[in-house]
């Protein structure tokens, strides 16, 4: 089947007013660092330098934590819950007003297609602030007793795959519950967090309620280990999550960890195959597979294996890879050179271990970090590509004969963040959902998010929930 040729449809980047350099956002103002260190953030699609960003050291982190403590004690902790609501509604509306700018900025800094940042990330950011604005003055009815109190100052560390959405998942519930925050965005994607700092200024949020300290892993460590923090919220790798859990265990700090995943997306023989194929594509190629809950292990019932894999390969030949700012792009850039090296390494190991690799014909741009959508068939459970989080556009395909075998294979992982089930039988969906050790089980869909729905993991995927009534608990002293 000939592929459609699409004319380029680039979103203009003129809506973004990039500054040459950015300071740290502490106590309501952009400030310099104590020791003058900076780093550059680049566009992963072109390797162009976008801006210079400040690297916060321990003294800066200390300043930010003190500002958050003062704001907690003097303003945010004592204003009425209704007032907190008003600020959160204001932030949500400002995110909506600046949505196009934020989407372009996110795609520039992260490499994700504008279609996703525009239609998924930023609308969900606004939805999280609206949702939590609604809770702020109703916490006494949330089931935690008549007067649930905040914890104090939250130290929050987020990854690069959904930079602004992860910020919203962290900041919106923390503020709704009456806490103040110091947040560290990932080194490779700091720009939307800094735009959010401007939104806090526009919303007249009292100084110190939200503080943004940019930097790398050491800045994150200084933040989570700071004695002035009462609650740590982390999303990222299981390895760093374990270090943070250890550090918190030696202190009074409450913590929630949202870590890696190796989700099974399970297709039964009676599933609507075309619909399932769309779900498989969405499950692993959305956001270049940089998704902790990505459906990176496809389990197909043997009787429909040829049909599913044939349809999937045909569908992959229609995916368009390239400029993240082009509205027709389906697959954008890999976020960093380091992540690309990791995807390449694990894919090479997959081949060396005997799995069969397939990618559609696909031209990769000359500059930037790119990896084609890739499928591995003939994968065994012992292969590293079936066990380890690749965090890229790489799908490992396994087969099963019975529902019991599907459950056994799906649960055969140290992770447990999500799973997908494709079948027309409601009873099978309910049975599978009860058997699967995963925080979220999607049925005949994948990668659906809603601020009202709690999200989190089992086993090495972490603990605690974000979103919904359950997510509030992590920020309350209950
Ligand atoms: P990390 O866990 O290293 O990074 C997540 C965040 O933690 C970043 O802001 C990072 O800073 C910060 N950080 C790093 N080290 C420390 C520390 N010791 N104490 C406190 N904060 C720290 O993930 P990577 O970005 O290195 O990605 C590595 C792998 O992790 C990926 O290949 C993927 O498999 C997995 N991953 C999973 C995610 C998920 O959502 N489940 C998200 C991201 C990654 P900085 O980025 O500046 O180094």
- Which stretches are low in confidence, meaning pLDDT under 50 for 5 or more residues running? none
Overall pLDDT, averaged?
Answer: 96
Share in helix: 25-40%
Strand element count: 20
Structural class: alpha/beta
Query: Which small-molecule ligands are present, each listed once?
Result: NADPH dihydro-nicotinamide-adenine-dinucleotide phosphate
Spatial strand order of the main sheet: 14-15-16-13-12-17-18
Characterize the structure shown.
The mean pLDDT is 96. This protein has 478 residues and is of the alpha/beta class. Strands 14-15-16-13-12-17-18 form a seven-stranded mixed beta sheet, sandwiched between helices. Strands 9-8-7-10-11-19 form a six-stranded mixed beta sheet, sandwiched between helices. The N and C termini lie far apart (59 Å). Helix 3 packs across helix 4 (114-136) and helix 9 (273-285) packs across helix 10 (305-316). The protein is built from 15 helices and 20 strands. The chain is globular and about 65 Å long. The structure holds NADPH dihydro-nicotinamide-adenine-dinucleotide phosphate. The site of NADPH dihydro-nicotinamide-adenine-dinucleotide phosphate has 26 residues, from helix 7, helix 8 and helix 11.
């Amino acid at each position: 089947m000939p592929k459609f040729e699409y004319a380029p449809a680039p979103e203009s980047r003129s809506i973004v007013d990039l500054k040459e350099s950015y300071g740290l956002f502490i106590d309501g103002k952009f400030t310099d660092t104590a020791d003058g260190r900076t780093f550059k953030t680049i566009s992963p699609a072109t390797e162009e330098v976008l801006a210079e960003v400040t690297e916060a050291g321990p003294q800066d982190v200390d300043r930010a934590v003190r500002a958050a403590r003062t704001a907690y004690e003097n303003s945010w902790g004592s204003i009425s819950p209704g007032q907190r609501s008003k600020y959160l509604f204001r932030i949500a509306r400002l995110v909506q007003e600046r949505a196009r700018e934020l989407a372009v900025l996110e795609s520039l800094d992260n490499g994700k297609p504008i279609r996703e940042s525009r239609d998924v990330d930023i609308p969900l950011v606004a939805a999280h602030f609206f949702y939590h604005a609604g809770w702020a003055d109703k916490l006494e009815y949330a089931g935690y007793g008549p007067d649930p109190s905040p914890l104090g100052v939250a130290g929050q560390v987020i990854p690069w795959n959904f930079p602004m959405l992860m910020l919203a998942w962290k900041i919106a519930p923390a503020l709704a519950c009456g806490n103040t925050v110091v947040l560290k965005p990932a080194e490779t994607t700091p720009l939307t967090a800094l735009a959010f700092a401007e939104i806090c200024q526009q919303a007249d949020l009292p100084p110190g309620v939200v503080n943004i300290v940019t930097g790398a892993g050491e800045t994150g460590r200084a933040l989570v280990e700071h004695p002035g923090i009462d609650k740590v919220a982390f999303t990222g790798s299981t390895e760093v999550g374990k270090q943070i859990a250890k550090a918190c265990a030696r202190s009074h700090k409450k913590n929630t960890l949202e870590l890696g995943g190796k989700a099974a997306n399970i297709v039964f023989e009676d599933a609507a195959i075309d619909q399932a194929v769309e779900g498989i594509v969405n499950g692993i190629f959305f956001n270049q597979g940089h998704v902790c809950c990505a459906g990176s292990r496809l389990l197909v019932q043997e009787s429909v294996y040829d049909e599913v894999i044939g349809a999937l390969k045909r569908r992959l030949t229609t995916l368009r890879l390239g400029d993240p700012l082009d509205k027709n792009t389906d697959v954008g850039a890999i976020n960093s050179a380091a992540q690309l090296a990791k995807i390449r390494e694990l894919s090479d190991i997959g081949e060396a271990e005997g799995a069969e690799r397939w990618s559609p014909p696909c031209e990769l741009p000359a500059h930037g970090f790119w990896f084609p959508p890739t499928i591995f068939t003939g994968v065994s459970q012992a292969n590293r590509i079936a066990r380890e989080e690749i965090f890229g556009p790489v799908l490992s395909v396994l087969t099963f004969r019975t529902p019991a075998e599907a459950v056994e294979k799906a649960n055969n992982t140290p992770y447990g963040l999500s799973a997908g089930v494709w079948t027309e039988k409601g009873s099978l969906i309910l049975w599978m959902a009860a058997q699967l050790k995963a925080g979220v089980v999607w049925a005949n869909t994948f990668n659906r998010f809603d601020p009202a729905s709690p999200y989190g993991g089992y086993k090495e995927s972490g603990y605690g929930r974000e979103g919904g009534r359950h997510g509030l608990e992590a920020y309350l002293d209950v």
